[in-house]
Write a structure and sequence with these properties.
mainly alpha, 4 helices
């Protein structure tokens, strides 16, 4: 009952808004979107891990130990997200 009400209320306006976009993106295969998303995650991880300067990222780090480097923890924390994304989309 609630689902029917939602469809009756919002389906018309949302189709009007999103139909042109859907018509453009529907022919593109889903694998393209999966690869694109993984590449964007990978590029972000590479940028944080390699490009950002250690001095800039670790301004208030309590020490010089590797586990105090926030670049490392950013990459480590993003890796499971990428793995789960790949797992459920391939």
């Amino acid at each position: 009952m609630f689902k029917e009400w939602i469809n009756n209320t919002f389906q018309g306006p949302l189709q009007t808004i999103f139909h042109p976009t859907n018509a453009i993106f529907t022919p593109i295969p889903p694998l393209f979107w999966i690869v694109s998303a993984v590449c964007l995650f990978g590029a972000a991880m590479l940028w944080v891990g390699v490009v950002l300067k250690k001095e800039y990222v670790n301004l208030d780090a309590p020490g010089d130990k590797p586990w105090h480097d926030l670049r490392l923890w950013t990459v480590v924390s993003m890796a499971p997200h990428v793995a789960i994304y790949i797992w459920f989309n391939l």
